[in-house]
Amino acid sequence: MTTSKLLLLITIAIEFCLASKVWQHDLNFDNPLNWANQNPPKPGQPLQFPTRLNAIVQFPSSVSSESITLPRDGVLMFPNGEASLAFGNGRKRQEPAIFQTPVRKPYYAIENWKTVDDNTNRLIEMNQAVPHLERIPCQYETAVFSETPSPVDFQYHEAIEVKDISYGGQRGLEEFRRFLVTDIGGFVFYNAEEILIREGKCKSPEKCSCQPEWVKGAVCPNEVCKIPYCTNPIVPFGHCCAICGSVLRMDLLNFGESFDLSGFTRKLERKIAASDVDKSLVDYHISVQNDALQLVIVDKKDYDEISVKLMNSLEPFFSKQFLNGHNILHAGHPYMPYESSQVFLLVFVSLLAVSMFFTIIYVYYYDDKMVPQITAQIRNGNFFRSPFVFARFYPNNDNEESTVDIDFNQSGVENLNSSFNNPMFEGNASGTSAPNDVGERAEEKLFVDVELTNQKPQ
Fold this sequence. Notes:
- The protein is α/β, with parallel strands linked by helices.
- The chain contains twelve helices and 22 strands.
- Among the domains are: 14-98, no CATH class; 105-221, no CATH class; 228-330, Alpha-Beta Plaits.
- It has helices at 2-16, 173-180, 183-188, 216-219, 261-274, 306-313, 315-321, 340-365, 370-380, 410-418, 423-431, 438-444; strands at residues 19-23, 47-48, 52-58, 62-65, 68-69, 73-77, 84-87, 97-98, 105-106, 113-117, 123-124, 142-145, 152-153, 159-162, 164-167, 170-171, 189-190, 196-199, 245-251, 282-289, 292-299, 327-330.
- The chain is flat.
- 21% of the residues are buried.
């Protein structure tokens, strides 16, 4: 019985504990990412370092250059043992290779870390179902830094809780504490004056979470969350952002010491493989968060409720395993939110449609001229042949003839002039007539007086 328990503990340790978080950025001389345009220097090419390097750069064992522009602040470190540095003037002057100024990167930012299997040295990919707090060194894992990492910013946080720290091949929390207070340590780890380097309280992922709860306040400010394209998104424990998918939670206190996380994981993987849902379409992750078992399932690509379908298909298995109950949360239906340009187009089209609707209502019920005119034009076949819009600006027809009616009506003029005769003027004219007025009287006889009378209707 004792032997079987020992074998079980060894199996669990192999499956869950033999992994390390490795800092992804270094300042090695041979790394193309550290040079401008990602072009490392060629032999004999001049080297130029920034004035304020404020970091440690690892040189190779042999360097050939025309000249080196040294930094004012910083460290250029050669490997232990023999190292050669050769200078020479080439026949043709070359452009210098420029080393880029290192940028500080936060310790509590997930993009700065990668997970490596300690046994196989294989990179373990972190899918989107893995909580953010598990993507940085856990309290039962080892944090690994190269000999010349890019500057690490601790951001004045309270502490770092890990199982161990490896820096430049040397391990040990106490050794790392002593290195932080040195001058060289100040070029690598920034804002670490008051930070506590302590060993994590939990030794196994079977019974405790990766990080204490306060670490979430250090990790989440460094993350930029994407918009979840679903209604009622969920936020699993350890996640900084709301996601679309499904979450299972089960209180481990109901099991005490009898729950076997590794055994449950193997059974769950068999159930997922036997389900109707294609395993390649989802990502899932099992871990312990806040004294509870948590299973997170998300769609690998765009959210299409495949994760919800898989979680529902596993419900009979969960009911059999967790007799004391469990809790499942699902995100809502997928939807695609409108972007700013789409919103503007929607508002514009809506206003245009409303304007057209009310214009048609007005013309149909209140305007008794426009509809008959258009109907008559269409009936006569002149609707598309006559320039009814611009006719007022172009009064000439196709034959360059005026379209304005200028016929003279003589009778209309006679009536118009006779209706405005002034008796006083006529009296003066008769009393003082001159011989020259004979022609005028003869001309006045041409006009017929029209007497305007008011006739009352009978």
